[in-house]
Amino acid sequence: MVVAIIPARGGSKRIPRKNIKAFCAKPMIAYSIEAALKSKLFDRVIVSTDDEEIAKIATQYGAEVPFMRPAELSDDHTATIPVIAHAIEELQKEETIDIACCIYATAPFIEVTYLKEAYQSLVNKQSDYAFSATSFAFPIQRAIKLNADQSVEMFNPEHFNTRSQDLEEAYHDAGQFYFGTVQAWLEARPIFSKASSAVILPRHKVQDIDTMEDFHRAELMYKAMSSD
User: Fold this and answer.
1) pTM here?
2) C-beta of residue 20 within 8 angstroms of C-beta of residue 54
3) Strands (DSSP E) found in 65-204
4) Which among 27, 33, 123, 140 is most buried, taking Cβ atoms within 10 Å?
5) Over the stretch 67-77, which tens digit does the pLDDT of each residue have?
6) How confident is the model at residue 228 (pLDDT cuts 50, 70, 90)?
7) Are 39 and 112 contacting, i.e. CB atoms less than 8 angstroms apart?
8) What are phi and psi of 118, to 5 degrees?
9) What are the pLDDT digits (tens) for 172-217?
10) Going by CATH, does the domain composed of 2-133+171-226 fall within 3.90.550.10?
């Protein structure tokens, strides 16, 4: 059985109620639920939450909330893997799960095409995980930092004179979804390893949403793409 698990706790601090905040006229979580259902990849689409309002909205958009997440897995310091492992363990009390896909509740740019690509990559390559990633817009080898006195320093000063086209391209997690085998989730294997594969998304379809500035930028991006 293949399941989608959408973690959505109620205690977001930087953007209060972020998981169900209205984003272009719909609760943020609705985009993740709808993409999961539309993909037809999943036997069940589950939302893992500690919050009754989130649970209600999730079910309104077609997801299941068969259990409530315990408080010890709902604080600011809980990582993703233990939450997904808990959900798998709850579901496996009744049925066998083979593959679980964690889909973040704050991923309005998620697309069915990339979900399908990641699923095929996981199965065909027999990876532990397959997840969304995108390229950095600027060579990370030429990144700078600010010291306590506001002076500037390069992380890799040896590359000051290196041409951008001669530097290796770098990628980062796109923060949308993570397919994984049940064994990988339950054994807490690292997602970023040689046992994982990445599906590369265009940069204009990726936006981390952690602050209100991020939120407003994401809405502008979404409206621009929707008007094409």
Assistant:
1) 0.93
2) yes
3) 99-103, 129-135, 144-146, 152-154, 171-181, 196-200
4) 33
5) 999 989 988 88
6) low
7) yes
8) -65, -40
9) 999 999 999 999 999 999 999 999 999 999 999 999 999 999 999 9
10) yes
